[in-house]
Amino acid sequence: MDKGTPKAIRLQDYRPPAHLIDTVDLQFELGEEVTTVRSTLGIRRNPDRPDAAGLPLTLDGQRLDLVSVALDGTPVAPDRYTVTADHLTVDQVPECFSLETVVRIKPQENTALEGLYKSSGNFCTQCEAEGFRKITYFIDRPDVMARYATTITAEKARYPVLLSNGNLVASGEHEDGRHWARWEDPFPKPCYLFALVAGNLRHAEDHFRTFSGREVTLRIYVEPGNEDKVDHAMRSLKKSMRWDEEVYGLEYDLDIFNIVAVGDFNMGAMENKSLNVFNTKYILAKPETATDNDFLGIESVVAHEYFHNWTGNRVTCRDWFQLSLKEGLTVFRDQEFSSDMNSRAVKRIADVQGLRTVQFQEDAGAMAHPVRPDSYVEINNFYTPTVYNKGAEVIRMIHTLLGPEGFRKGMDLYFQRHDGQAVTCDDFVAAMADASGVDLSQFQLWYRQAGTPDLSVATAYDEAARTYRLTIRQTVPPTPGQPDKQPMHIPVVVGLLGPDGADLPLRLTGEAAPAGTSRLLHVRKAEEVFEFVDVPARPVPSILRGFSAPVKVKADVSDADLTFLMANDSDAFNRWEAGQILGGRILLGLVADQQAGRLLDLPQSYVDAVGAVLRDADADPAFAAQALVLPTEAYLGTQMDVVDPEAIHTVREFARKTLAARLRPDWLATYRRHAGNQSFSVEADAIGRRALKNLCLAYLMALEDEEALSLCLGQYHGATAMTDVIASLQFLSNSNAPQRDEVLAGFYERWKGEPLVVDKWFGVQAMSYRPDALERVTELLKHPAFEIRNPNKVYALIGGFANGNPVRFHDATGSGYRFLADQVLRLDPMNPQVAARMMGPFSRLRRYDAARQALMKAQLERIVATPGLSPDVFEVASKSLEAAG
Ligand code: B3K
Ligand code: ZN
Question: Which residue ranges does the record assign to the Peptidase M1 alanyl aminopeptidase C-terminal domain (predicted)?
Fold first, then answer.
């Protein structure tokens, strides 16, 4: 680091701000060389900080060229203020005053995509978390909430559209070809929700009538040429607005809601008040260019950002440690919305798979942190699966503990108490507890303790006494900075299946009568025993139904019982889960065989169990498509003490080929049944059929025989929906088919005008498990379509290889590690956020063998020794090295 080691910020050091800002008047002069920002702030001393009298005013500001400072209309003498790289400090300020600053910035040189920057020639902003300080001097923290008025002036020909938060209150033209627009946002907001867009954009318009009868204008702005790809996003927006009214009684609060899609964006999207800015990936879609997953992703991200209007904007975070207050809650809300719009079981399975592969890995690595972290160096490093997805699981557990009505009461109370405020996770939990009367005191450990709890379940049936006993033990593993953990309050939903496969009525010792067939058990102590009475025969236990807590379970359930659950469990999630546990057990057994040099053999009983699911697939194709996927390589890795990427890959491919060969007629028949020409729709059923069909093709292509190849090529050339095209392209890209190179080249020629489709092309090649993958990725870095400044390209090619191709990335020579470190160092000076996000695999080095650890460590040492490193990359690299010991 050039400025010394960056300092950690700690939750325990939180203090309310010394000054508050009530009003903000911004005037932007957007220019090609220089943009001028004039800001007038209405400031007063914070009454909650009586000690602040006499303290100077400290404003945050970075990379700003300060032109002037005036206090209550009078220029401030130079000896009364100080400017450093990060702050503007003004001495001897009165209790209440206005401060006017003028700064110059250069958005066209901003490659970090934080603050005000340009994308495809258009101006746009990204302020969360701390980007506003790169636009103007301000108290850049979320507990400073102000009313904003924004005037934008720019050349009309280049920037016909001028947008900001709130309502357009005036606009006009100058004689020199410039025009202006003034926007006012009536709702006080933290500066991270500020947004500005100026550019040459087209829009689609629609309307929504809220339940109180207000007519809201909805607009989605895109670059010219993309107008034909916004229908799905618009439909998703209207559905989200209706859903939030119906489920939570929450209504939209302004007369206009704008979305702008930009091609260069660090994340998925941003919930700026009434002016959401989106990555094009989460707006643009038509069947020819977008896959089913893209369509589902758009629906959920549009909903997520819309839902933030209440959970995030109306009630916001006191400080960035509370990020999960808005993110965990809003992810939970978008998950529930998607479940209501599509298949609930399939959505739950997909979410749990994501949690287990990505979040569980994070929890086991150097960057492990609680849902509410207690310290950070760079807040941008904490927009993590833990804060978002484990955070959503924490909310889901509260929902389980309170029940749907109790949860709704809690939400109502939360808004009643905190509308317009910046609050903490404790405030949220208090509203939930107070509204429902449920004691959540021990539960709050979920916000404070990092690491994935381990549950072990032992079962015992007493035939004579007709009792069935579950003994559940919990341990929470140590994580960096948290060596010792306390037992958590874990909601474990269970059912018991009788010999006929039906759920048994459940009565616990001491209860007068059975209560339901799915029971919530509260595990609070390190060990708990639950005894069910009146159990007529040895039951098969269905444990953690619906994945009722984000934990790892080890239960003494036999393979035969798992096969029984796969066929009979009334809980769809656990029907899928049983298959995953069984598949995982078998594959991990084979990994041990492979490591010991023993011959691999897949048990016929397992082939039969998979065959049974396959033959029943038409009953619920979407579910079957999930149930027939073998546990992923990443997931298998999380189940091992020392991850062996090569053995895992070899074994999983062996199992895929064996299942493909032994069940070939069934894969083929199922493929054929679903491959017929149906008209395209994104209804859950149609998506499910395509998923099942493509899964069958994946198995058939594992064999790479003539017939499979011809089916695959036939689908590639004949399909119109991108889902089908890209699936066949992926199988071909993994194959040794002679047509492979020609097909890949042809795909690029066909789609080179569509950047989002080109990203898929990069991704497919980056994730190819052919031995030449890294060579190909290295070549593609030089491809004319690859653009290192565009995050989507980086995520597709570099991220696709580092995260989506474990066997090639973890190549024993260390070539993958060297490659990744090179790219991180190349990215860091341009875009630290993206560079740091690429470091994930290094933060998990402890999970690998000594040789790989040493190779990764060497790359990390090279990274930290690089002068001028960003705090973003420095934090991940140094924490990873620390954990490596
Ligand atoms: N709140 C934004 C994420 C901002 C990330 C800043 N590094 C998107 C979202 O979660 O909705
Ligand atoms: Zn969010």
Answer: 559-882
Q: Which residues are catalytic?
A: 305
End-to-end alpha carbon distance in the chain = 21
Which ligand sits closest to the CA of 330? 2
Span 6-32, pLDDT tens digits: 899 999 999 999 999 999 999 999 999
Q: What SS3 class is residue 26?
A: strand
Quote the CA–CA distance of 9 and 384 in Å, as a whole number.
Answer: 17
Q: Which residues contact 798 (CB under 8 A, 6 or more apart)?
A: 766, 777, 820, 823, 838
The pTM of the full predicted model, rounded to 2 decimals, is 0.98
pLDDT tens digits along 542-572: 999 999 999 999 999 999 999 999 999 999 9
Task: Give the other-Cβ count within 10 Å of 446's Cβ.
Answer: 26
Distance from C-alpha of 72 to C-alpha of 27, rounded to nearest angstrom: 17
CB distance 389 to ligand 1 below 6 Å = no
Q: Which CATH superfamily is domain 454-549 in?
A: Aminopeptidase N, middle-beta domain (2.60.40.1840)
**% of the chain with per-residue pLDDT over 70:** 99
Q: Give me the residues near ligand 2 (ion), CB cutoff below 5 Å.
A: 327, 330
Ligand 2 center to 326 CA (angstroms): 7
Common-topology check for domains 22-42+56-295 and 454-549: yes
Q: What is the pLDDT of residues 796-837, one digit of tens each?
A: 999 999 999 999 999 999 999 999 999 999 999 999 999 999
Q: For 104, phi and psi rounded to 5 degrees?
A: -115, 140
Alpha carbons 159 and 181: distance in angstroms, whole number: 11
Return the CATH number of the domain spanning residue range 22-42+56-295: 2.60.40.1730
* CATH code of the domain made up of 316-448: 1.10.390.10
Token pair, residue 564, equals: 């029984």
How far apart are alpha carbons 843 and 367 in whole angstroms?
A: 6
